[in-house]
Model the fold of this input.
Amino acid sequence: MDWIALWLSVRLAAATSMVLLAIGIPLAYWIVFSTRRWKFLIEAIVALPLVLPPTVLGFYVLVAIGPLSPVGRAYARVAGRGLPFTFEGLLIASVLYSMPFAVQPFAAEFASVDRRLLEASWSLGVSPLATFRRVVMPLSVRGLVTGIVLSFAHTLGEFGVVLMVGGNLPGVTRTVSISIYDAVQSLDYASASRTSLFLLMVSFVILACTYALQRSVWIKPRH
Amino acid sequence: MDQAAPLTAAPAGAALQFHAEQRFASGFGVAATLDVAMPAGSMLVLFGPSGAGKTTILRQIAGLERPDAGTIRFGGEVWCDVARQQWVAPQSRRVGVVFQEPTLFPHLTVRDNIRYGIGVGSEWSRTGVRPQSDPGAETARLLGIGDLEKRYPRELSGGEAQRVALARALAPRPRLLLLDEPFAALDAPTRLRLRREVRALLQATGTPAILVTHDRHEALALGDAVAVVIAGRVRQAGPIADVFSRPADSEVAASLGVEAVLPARLVQASGGVAEVVVGDVILHVAERDPIAPGSNVYVCIRAEDVTLETRSPGQASTRNHLAARVVAINAEGPIDRITLDCGFPLDALITRRSRDDLQLAHGAHVTAAIKATSIHLVPRT
Done:
């Protein structure tokens, strides 16, 4: 089994989940509570990776962070090297690719908080933002956990995007799914089978835990 | 600012000047005007049928609905002036709200729920109204929920939860308390007990309040003033006994009910019969729920329960026989409404035939008979 590739995938997935936690919460907050009419456009953009072929997303990210784009050039000037075929470049692509898996559960959970609780909080003198922190967030723990777990699992399994943006550099961009592909290409079916089985079990356990959490198997319902 | 009297929040004689128009996508709309004094500890009742717009008016006062047009002022402060684009957020109005459902924060204990509005992040804690003592604990004690502090909302009964919601709204010492049918979801004994407690608490804290209800007994039991809301408009407003005894028009009268409502005092009760004094007339009333002698009550008498006699009666089961004079006779279809003066104004409904038999005419002297079981008492809490 390719432990280096596996460790890389876990690091990438964990970093992606953390970044999505940081930017997904404000984004989901805005999607749920904004009164702008054009917010459906942002919702559509967030959901795009669900339907777009990973290669298309990967292609655009590659172009966007490459030396031909202003962003890519600016990063290269500051960091001393470019983004394509690096862990950072892969992280940017993964964040975009797994965005709906974090933002949608966050937003669904925020939206499910009883509006009357928000009104009660406002009339007790608490600002909308503080209300979000003191009422919405604590009541959305399940949605936050679901979003983090799903984006982690989704990043763990990505292939096309990684291939386009990261390439196949061992320990840098060669994730576990690419390692399996390589093993099959070189007819090393034993290794491919071990890694595949491992990934299958990990994914299943993660998803089983998530759905158990949603069904409140362990947590007592609050309402 | 409130140091001399720690529990008094509102200045005496704050006034509410309200005019708001708002139309909803459903087609429902309100266009209401209300101009009332709100003395400390007083209760204004928004009364009317379901769907009349009472709750919308309350939410506009709270700042939870934004009118399309109009102005809302309270205690000399402009809360909303659509034409001048002035708007005070609900956070800054210092208005306590209690909804029909308790809407407690499910992830917080009773204590943290009550303290929610006086904690960090609350507008009110920053505006200099923070008290020396713990107003949350004080309100909780007054409402008899001090020993529930560590429980979570899901562990409370309906009555307890509504008490906590009330304590939560009162803890930051609002200038005005808004109550949206807060007793409607409770069972009858709890409802009666909580009504009394709310009334006492508001008077103790000097908080003026506005209560939305479609229950006339609740309106009578709690209200000092009433505003009758029908189809999105305030049709009549004034002291509660005035409005109930002199409805402005037939629609208001219909929504208030057909009963005469008379302020009275209960002097004594024995053997299941209570004696109440209306003006200088004594009425005997079958006692349903015990009321302490000396209490102020409203006496409610339906016009169809008043019978008229011309001769002095023999032995009969009817307890009340009042000497009366006919003041007016109005035909209502086949029925005549006879307005009487028997020391207090009273209406009787009789058929045309009875009127002919009795040869009733303007100024005639009659005896009005009312069974003790037909009179209802509403205690003024």
